[in-house]
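pipeline/complex-builder :: batch 7 item 3
reading input block
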Amino acid sequence: MSGTAAEAAPSLRRIKLSDQIAEDLCRRIARERMEPGQRLPNEQALMQQYGCAKGTIREALKALEVQGLVTMRPGPNGGAEIRPISVDAAAQQLRRFLHFRQLDFAQVYAVRRGLEVALGTSVVGRLDAEALRGLDENIAACEAAFAAGEHVRGRNLELTFHDLLCDASDNALLAFMCRFINSLLRDLVEFRGGNKTEYAAFGAHNLDSHRQLVSAFRAEDPEAAGRVMHEHMCCAEHFMRRLDASFRNDLLTGR
Amino acid sequence: MSGTAAEAAPSLRRIKLSDQIAEDLCRRIARERMEPGQRLPNEQALMQQYGCAKGTIREALKALEVQGLVTMRPGPNGGAEIRPISVDAAAQQLRRFLHFRQLDFAQVYAVRRGLEVALGTSVVGRLDAEALRGLDENIAACEAAFAAGEHVRGRNLELTFHDLLCDASDNALLAFMCRFINSLLRDLVEFRGGNKTEYAAFGAHNLDSHRQLVSAFRAEDPEAAGRVMHEHMCCAEHFMRRLDASFRNDLLTGR
DNA sequence: CTAGATTTGTTCGTATGTATC
DNA sequence: TGATACATACGAACAAATCTA
């Protein structure tokens, strides 16, 4: 055998063939500007193109699937189809990372405060009549839920209010982070429940803040929106602290 | 239409066996509290345990590998080894998500401003003598780099200053987000370069801010730390805007 | 509604490369 | 140096899912 041996350091292991193919397919998707709905060549074609066996191709496709770039479907017209986005894949990966770290909600709110203030000011002027109506409807639905004593559903609707603001933002990074925190808080309320009377006071306060926010949005007053949002976050943190909330620690296994 | 079979079909597909196994291995790792360095059973053992073939096991392990939970190593004492963490996997996934979205640096700084202020105030009282010395050394190294005209290296060192603050934080979520933004800004400076005289003024201003921050940390004054950091971020955004910076759009292919 | 065609999903057997002893 | 254990890769099949005629 000629010098095909590992001339480099032992730490520089040979790159697995399936990883090389996955990397190359990534580049192809980016280079050829493949859009959601388009399909990659089927397994047999890929086997011929890369001159390798079926199992190797399947491992490469599995990597792309886990990364959220494609979805696999069996049958005719099946195969690897380009996925629209991978926001949930990114969020799930971030959850995995946070799984082993203990997070108390005070830390979460230290992050949320700054982010939501930025979100509130940034969406001013970007909410059309339909979006504002959606916010009004959310507030009404939220009020109805609390009036019916369905506090968990009310809390979820409150968080949906903030998700709606994310929809209106043109800042993809800010929107992702805010949505991610909302999903963390959703899990919190799902698994801890809480005292009913405390929740009622909490919900009433939040509804008032949301109404003030919508007023600021209608007046297109970014300063007011930021100020109201700041107070809103501080109040929410205060309530959550009194509820002695803590995050569940099994984010990994949960979907 | 009469009862078409595909009314809720897409979500109710049969779960692939390899995905079931990957999910189960995830649970096992979490349930048995497996720590970094420990190894999963080898492929033959897993084949027996799950009663399936090699290819299926390999696909499942590939999924865990892409998710950053394990690394595969050949040879004796090889196999799937639990990975310490997957911070870079989460960051890479987030980059993938942001790839197709256009992000200007004004949006990045809208996020960074709130986060870094929270970071600055949260690390007050958590920096021991060694950490403070590390910040001093970073400032000195940064100053030396700018004096030598190595502006790119200086800019990287400036960002390292903020990474050091992340190291000192006990807020895993906040630290992750700040580090992620630092990595975005690192790519920015790597690929755009910039005017030398503008960079020099930018660097001098940043060094001054960093010194003021360390003073606030030594005095253990959270209010001052937050205020200085806020001004620091506003100035940085202002400079970046004048540099007409923009983010590279090929985050996907890059490592 | 059935039947066939197409493509992924899965299995088995075997061979090769690589790291440890 | 050789032997061993293990991941890596190949190739040929079969099973299951899904579309089309």
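note: The longest strand of chain A covers residues 70-73.
queue -> next item
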